[in-house]
Amino acid sequence: MPAPSDLRGLPLLGSKEEAFFAYDEKQLNIHDRIRLANPDYGRQTARGKATEKIIVTTVGRVMFNEIWPKELGYHNQPVKKSDLSDLIWQCYKFAGPVKTVTLLDKLKEVGFQAATQAGISIGIDDMLVPTEKENIIAAARIKITEVEKSFREGRKTEIERRLEVKKHGRSVPTRFQKP
């Protein structure tokens, strides 16, 4: 936390709307530190601070918090990729499955927007196709064909056929995942 004398130079904003306006007007950048009226002041939340009237944060954190349900409170820490699953679990625990699904949609959209602004694009040429892919798929198809033949000949029941076809079909994608 910066010393109190360092805080005087930071812009003091009364709401997230003021932060968005200043950002849209190019008065603030996404990583600029600001002082903000605490949206959690006077109310208990899962991660906010109910006793502080003003918090020091960044414009980016204001934007990030916009997508989360209000019952979680204001998350005023840097968020690493590994932290996201914990935050999503908190959302599920405190806000329920419906709000969590909505959050995930918003989080995906924010990710696409950030990638677009950063100039990041992903094309089909960026995808690496393992050289053994065709052989693995062909082997799975042969096994499935054998299972189907056994079923037609009466050596397997319908349930056995379904289970084995699913097993062989599901084994293909897992062979290409990183360990």
Q: Mind sketching the topology for me?
A:
Blueprint: H1 4-7, E1 12-13, H2 16-24, E2 33-37, E3 54-58, H3 59-66, H4 81-95, H5 97-118, H6 133-152, H7 158-174
Parallel strand pairs: 1-2
Antiparallel strand pairs: 2-3
What structural keywords apply?
mainly alpha, 179 residues
Give an account of the 3D structure.
It is a single chain. With 179 residues, the protein is mainly α. Helices cover 53% and strands 7% of the residues. The chain is built from seven helices and three strands. The chain has helices spanning 4-7, 16-24, 59-66, 81-95, 97-118, 133-152, 158-174; strands at 12-13, 33-37, 54-58. It has a three-stranded mixed β-sheet. The longest helix has 22 residues, at 97-118.
CATH architecture name of the largest domain: Orthogonal Bundle
Superfamily (CATH H level) name of the largest domain: RNA polymerase Rpb1, domain 3
Note the run of SSEs as H and E.
HEHEEHHHHH
Question: Looking at the structure, what is the overall shape?
Answer: elongated
Helix content: 40-55%
Low-confidence stretches: none
Tell me the CATH topology of the largest domain.
Enzyme I, Chain A, domain 2
Strand order of the largest sheet: 1-2-3
Tell me the number of helical segments per DSSP (H or I, 4 or more residues long).
Answer: 7
Helix vs. strand class: mainly alpha
Estimated share of beta-strand residues: 5-15%
The radius of gyration over CA amounts to: 25 Å
- Could you give the distance between the termini? 39 Å
Mean pLDDT: 86
How many separate structural domains? Answer: 2
β-strand number:
3
State the CATH class of the largest domain: Mainly Alpha
Largest sheet data? 3 strands, mixed
